Amino acid sequence: MAAGRGVAWAVGMPDSIPAPAARASPGPNHSQSKNAAHAPTKDRFALNDTTHNAATDTATDTVLAAEHLTRQVSSPEGSLTIVNDVSLRIGAGESVAIVGASGAGKSTLLALLAGLDTPSSGRVILAGQDLTQLDEDGRARLRAERVGFVFQSFHLVPALTALENVMLPLELAGRRDARAGALEALERVGLRDRVGHYPRQLSGGEQQRVALARAFVTRPAVLFADEPTGNLDTVTGARVTQLLFEMNSSAHTTVVLVTHDRELASRCGRMLVMEGGRLV
Q1: Looking at the predicted structure, is the pLDDT value of residue 111 above 50?
Q2: Number of helical H runs and strand E runs in the chain
Q3: Which of 13, 81, 85, 260 has the highest Cβ tally under 10 A?
Q4: Mean of the pLDDT values across residues 260-264?
């Protein structure tokens, strides 16, 4: 397989990021947990310390942090603020859901945290790296090495089989065991008998399971999921959800997901609610 398809495909990333509807409203930054056992304290994730650095993150097992993150875009009506002064910390192995109405800024925040988009101000520390200090190639390398993606629309490469889709990130990383690793990942998601099938020959649930196998095959530090069950029926979505959290648990991967599905969000250890570009 040619590596020229790009690092973007290695992590299941689309060629471009759709711009979500933008809204801006005032309000403080807070987070909401699903229960008292996971209730975060303010300093656990609200970053007010301007001396914060990557070394601090490593010492405290923080794998992902945002400091005063803002994203603004120009429009005929003037400047629109899509993400407004968001600060948070997410620890290694955590599962965190970002929920909110359409246009609240969830997908844009996810793109900023993953280094798919760049902020107007503020910064993101991902796996010990300050994304604002990296160029586009540097961010792409970091994503290929430390990040996995699962999208609502699967983003499998149509010309590649299930096995080849899962092998791709391993091949781009120069792994000689790409085939063996991909076969193991597909077996874990119950698709050992579908390795030679192309995406068009797979059901929606099977395609999303291939996407899950591809996302986890490199054992990423962080998995970002944007509406991972959005295109699936209830039963298939529940199966994919179960697989997602089983793989999260066994690999100790941090999961950050955007969803409208409160039942899916409730499976996460922590829930962040966005409204008008802010955490509320």
Answers
A1: yes
A2: 10, 10
A3: 13
A4: 87
The three state secondary structure string of 206-251 is HHHHHHHHHHHCCCCCEEEEECCCCCCCHHHHHHHHHHHHHHHHHH
Helix residue ranges, H only, 52-99: 54-59
Alpha-carbon distances, residue 124 vs 33, 78, 247 (angstroms): 22, 26, 25
Task: List CB contacts of 182: < 8 A, sequence separation 6 or more.
Answer: 163, 166, 167, 170, 213, 217
Q: Whole-angstrom Cα distance, residue 171 to residue 185?
A: 15
Q: Quick one: which of 110, 117, 102 has its CA closest to 86?
A: 110
b/e 11-25 (16+ beta carbons within 10 angstroms → b): bbbeeeeeebebbee
Contact by Cβ (8 Å): 273, 109: no
Work out the burial of residue 153: count CB atoms within 10 Å of its CB; fewer than 13 is exposed, 13-18 middle, 19 or more buried: middle
Query: Binning pLDDT at 50, 70 and 90, where does residue 27 land?
Result: very low
The packing angle between helices 178-188 and 162-172, to 10°, is 130
> Residue 180: CB partners within 8 Å, gap ≥ 6?
none
Distance from the Cα of residue 135 to its chain's centroid: 20
Query: Position 100: which residue type?
Result: G
